[in-house]
Design goal:
This protein is α+β, with helices and mostly antiparallel strands and 155 residues long. The chain has a single domain, classed as 2,3-Dihydroxybiphenyl 1,2-Dioxygenase, domain 1 (Roll). Helices cover 30% and strands 40% of the residues. The chain has 3 helices and 8 strands, in the order H-E-H-E-E-E-E-H-E-E-E. The chain has an 8-stranded mixed beta sheet with strand order 2-3-4-1-5-8-7-6. Strand 2 and strand 3 form a beta hairpin. The longest helix has 25 residues. The protein is globular.
Length: 155
Amino acid sequence: MKFRLLLVWLLLGLVAPVCAQTSERNRPMTEKKEFALHKVAQIAVTVKDLDRATAFYRDKLGLKHLFKAPSISAFDCSGLTLLLSVAESTGAHSSIVYFEVADIQATVQTLTERGVTIFEKPNKVGQLGQLDVWIAIFRDSEDNLMGLRSMVPRS
């Protein structure tokens, strides 16, 4: 069973890029590129005990720890940010996938025009070096929270 799953994973990893390249090549040059989210930038995992979870991900899994604040702890996973956050209520135990976007305001406008419910409007949540970190939260068709993240250079 493990071998079969590994084989499927390898095939998907090898075939998907080829299919994507073929699809791009076959698109007419005059065709207008449609809006689409494409790059996952951050995944937020809800935890019960932030100190314990931070130690686990840092010490047991060996992930590069970026910072810890009172309710969150962040790790770098080769460019993807793993964000541990304390559950706001006892029943809320889910994860949020954040999509990287260049212009969070324009993206929220486009999603709103498409009927997507914006749960939390774009707001600056912090800074990483010379970048301001902006986040917006929306709900998918199954009422799951999903996110947008934009890293904006400070002027």
